Amino acid sequence: MDATILGLLLLDGVQNGVIYGLLALAMVLVFAVTRVILVPIGELMMFAPLSFIWLQEGKLPGTLWLALALGVLWALLERGRGRGLPLLGGMGLLLLFLLAQGSPALAYLAALLLVVYLGVATYRVFFQPMREATVLAYLIMAVGLHVAYQGLGLVFFGPEQYRPAPLLPGEVTVGLSWQGVLVLLFALAAVLGLYLFFRLSLFGKALLAAAENRLGARLLGIRPEEAGMVAFAIASFLAGVSGLLLAPLINAAYFMGFMLGLKGFVAAILGGLVSYPVALVGALLVGLFESFTSFYASAYKEALVFLLLVPALFVQSLRARAVEE
Amino acid sequence: MRYLWFLFLLLPLALSPFPFYLTLLNFFAISALVALSLYVLTGLGGMTSFAQAAFMGMGAYATALVTVKGGFSPWLGLLLGLLLSLLLALLLGGLTVRLKGHFLPLSTIAWQVALYILAGNLVGLTGGHTGLTDLPPLVLLGLPLDSAFRYAFLGLFLLVLFILALGNLRRSRLGRALLALRGDALAAASFGVDPAALRLQAFLLAGGMAGLAGFLYAHFLRFVNPTPFSLEASIKYLVMAVAGGVGSIPGVLLGSALFTGLEDWLKDLLPLFLGRQGNYETIAYGLVLAAILILAPKGLWPLLERRLPQGEGRLPQGEGLPETPLEGKRGEVVLEARGLRKAFGGLLAVNNVSLELRRGEILALIGPNGAGKSTTFNLITGAIPPDAGQVFLLGREITGLPPHRIHPLGLGRTFQHPHLFPELSVLENVALGTYARTRAGFPQVLLGLHGQEEARALATAYRALKRVGLEDLALERAERLPAGQQRLLEIARALASGASVLLLDEPGAGLRAGEKRELARLLKSLAREGYTILLVDHDMDLIMGLADRVVVMNYGEKIAEGTPKEVQRDPLVRAAYLGEAA
């Protein structure tokens, strides 16, 4: 291996790593606030670029109808003024999609908002009615939604892979495209933004409080449903932007989100599903590990990543007490 | 009655004119076996696995390699397949059973995906996505099982064996312990259940069952490729189990039967409906699963079961477990804490607390809210490890030992908020107490060889119920009991465990005046018989009439010790309780 290849592998690893990192951040956040392990995050991620491509071709994507159908259910579950958000949001979304069919800039926005709306509706329709369920029941639900959304992705978009035009064309140097730089910049901005949100804004602090102690937060007037919806909104937003930025680099297809999400998981597990910084470092590690294994054993790279779980789980196992109250 | 399950074996005869249904019947038997493995994990143990299809794959590929590539007997393939699935279960379980509940299922997803990729990519070994073909048929007693009709007998026979074996498991100390672990690991551990070890054993059993199902699958189709061992397949089995009702064996069977039929129908119908080919049935699986989790979280079977006539339970008769007499000299120290200390972050909850508990006495630990009583209690019982200090029980140091190691040395406890298992009967809740006094392991239990010990354990539990006066409620579900009786039930459970030192955490809380008097009478008579009792409570009236000695705590420290009369006069105690100037 020479220096050029080493450089390429490093770049590739960091670029993938930050995406896993963002997914890991989103999953840690959602888990902390709602105890849901967000398995379908990969599907949400892929819905963004695929819907965008459909809009560019002047078609309305099936995801829109899915989002609107869940929106209607969401509205039915709410009472009184709570119905305003899903109904107005749904109508706004529909309007935006009709307008965005000709305009690429609007199409980005429409695809992103679609994913956020879908994410929140997913929480409201599927997870929130299970309130007080065990982590296990939430996980089974999450996995069920993953297979359902993946199957729907196949129905909506077919089995083909698509490569949308990059937002910023061209390369900085060999192996580093401007689009790749954009991915890195977004990751930085997202981490900084989350940090500021949690440190400075009252709502961010409330969310952290709800994550720390749900009953306590509730006693102080923080509604757990609201906290859950915001957590899902942030997670879907991160997933949507990551998907839109990543698609020109790695293609987009209905089945691709799951693997990306799973690697985000590995990163999140390296952080014990609780620590944001460790999850980020873990994500970079996963990205680099993957990029180097793909150089040496490309057919098995997807399998080898999961080997990283062994030492991570082992270390946590040593630290754990057998009995948790 | 339970042998009626063997009527399943008549199904192939009934369906023999319909080859298509015979094939479905085989798939039902295999799927039900995998779904039953999830009954062990999820229904009993409260864990789950998204890798049951990968375990099947181990069994299937092992026998395919042994027979096709090696040319050996399929039975060697079975052996190797079971070995491989057990090894995988050992690895996966060994890494995760000590961690919080969600790590195990998460890692099973990852391993499932990884193994699926390997099966598709190790072309030299597995034939890649084309797979391995021409597996030999199984031959049993000279009869080749080469038709769906004959094969169904084998599949259904094995299924019935496992139905009976898991029924045995459910009605055993191990089944109770698994159910208890699911509800409340600390309570289970307080009666001698080692959570990690038991979870691992359940995981091994489930892995082995899925491996066996994979073996059956491979020799039925006589062809293996990666597709039936994918994550989607694992999820399908979970959907079957959860939809039917993962908490009971008939529920799991119902789910398997429904979905085996439904799958075929969906595969025909959905492409027509959607106008193109694809694995669209996964959409239906996902949505059905979601609907069931929201609308009927316990599955379909409980809805049906309500309409069926309920069999009456029987009260246990006969001898109990052998009792060790309560011996030792009255007044000798049985439990001693020296200089216990525990801080939570910056809060010093317990600071330098020492106390002695002497045989045959009732010692009360009292103090205002937040004085550190419950923490002291948890330090002694091993629920949390102390930062400093030592604890001795009957002359042996138990500092820092986990609860499941402390309990068998002779310490039984109750909880401030009763830790009961609502879906178990009162009798079974008490019988959990006998866990550490009984021995039957998985092999004996699955084979049903634990009957005698089980009967004696139940008889012991029944006698403990009589002791506290709850024998009339033995067959009720524990969740139906009012708070006062739940506390008595916990005391009965501690008595059934044979422990001579009883630690009772607020036994009087939530009791009416009459119930408190009865409780006091019970505790006094236990102390007369030689039991030693440490209790934490707020209720001064109860304690002053009951305790031989009192230890008073405030702000994490011991501030007084003596007879009830002495501490009542103590100015420090009066200050702590009434806010008087000392």
Number of domains of chain A: 1
Helix content of chain A: over 70%
Give the assembly state of these chains: heterodimer
**Category by helix and strand content of chain B:** alpha/beta
Strand segment count of chain B = 14
Strand order of the biggest β-sheet of chain A: 1-2
Mean pLDDT across all amino acids of chain B: 89
Task: Please report the distance between the alpha carbons of the first and last residues of chain A.
Answer: 51 Å
The value of Rg of chain B in angstroms is 28 Å
State the helix count of chain A.
14
Give the CA-CA distance, first to last residue of chain B.
Answer: 72 Å
Structural class of chain A: mainly alpha
Radius of gyration of CA atoms of chain A, rounded to a whole number: 20 Å
What does this structure look like?
The complex is a heterodimer of chains A (325) and B (582). Helix content of chain A is 76%, strand content 2%. Chain A contains 14 helices and 2 strands; from the N terminus they run ααααααββαααααααα. The N and C termini of chain A lie far apart (51 Å). With 582 residues, chain B is α/β, with parallel strands linked by helices. Chain B is elongated. Chain B has a 6-stranded mixed beta sheet with strand order 10-11-12-7-13-14, with helices on both faces. In chain B, strands 6-5-8-9 form a 4-stranded antiparallel beta sheet, with helices on one face. The N and C termini of chain B lie far apart (72 Å). Chains A and B meet through helix 6, helix 11, helix 13 and helix 14 of A and helix 5, helix 9, helix 11 and helix 13 of B.
